[in-house]
Amino acid sequence: xxxxxxxxxxxxxxxxxxxxxxxxxxxxxxxxxxxxxxxxxxxxxxxxxxxxxxxxxxxxxxxxxxxxxxxxxxxxxxxxxxxxxxxxxxxxxxxxxxxxxxxxxxxxxxxxxxxxxxxxxxxxxxxxxxxxxxxxxxxxxxxxxxxxxxxxxxxxxxxxxxxxxxxxxxxxxxxxxxxxxxxxxxxxxxxxxxxxxxxxxxxxxxxxxxxxxxxxxxxxxxxxxxxxxxxxxxxxxxxxxxxxxxxxxxxxxxxxxxxxxxxxxxxxxxxxxxxxxxxxxxxxxxxxxxxxxxxxxxxxxxxxxxxxxxxxxxxxx
Length: 317
Ligand SMILES: [Mn+2]
Fold this sequence. Notes:
inorganic pyrophosphatase (n-terminal core), Diaminopimelate Epimerase, Chain A, domain 1
């Protein structure tokens, strides 16, 4: 049994609790909050700046109320979840006790006296919450064990970034009653119809070509560009370029690259920076996932990006 809680935190947990999650709360944050809420009677969940669509799914499965605006003053303890610094979950209510439970690499600056449970080796906050519930010898129901598993599942990218400890806790959660099939049912079901039809249109309009051993695919949609690009990589493309434009002449290009080509040195941010040099606008992202926003003909700009990708492929060793 791990020892995460000192006497002060144990006493704090008996207070009236405000479970504060980060802005645009994700599945890890919401599942951590609803699981704690299920075992700690005197607690309220607060998401001060919106909840992601999957986070909302968890909240609706748990059927619990979530406060939208933190009170100015909290007479009890504020528990900040999955939020490495106060700006990510604020505004913080005026309170005497704050406990932070988080797993991000870097911990920010919290008010003096804040109790910090920071375990960066954990792949999700849900895992820390599970250990805390065990340490308090409280009982999670099957349903909430499944919900915590949802937090682990999403924060590890469906266990792709899991470590040995992740699987130990996932296994303990199963022993507690979590059902891995329900995790899939909760998270992978019910994409909105508009998203499904858009993805299918992206596939229908897709063009692809081969350059050496690499495949470049492109398409055009009205929305959900990045999801469409991601799915084209799943289909087998090494580079996916998906554009959209609106009536005002603004366009967006969302791009993805396979891990395999990125590991050879291919970098989408360089490609899109070159587009901004020619066409203005702005770009940003990572080597394997980047976006461009600008003005102009989306087809022409996609073609430009494609040509730059071909040149970059020729320079790969
Ligand atoms: Mn997290």
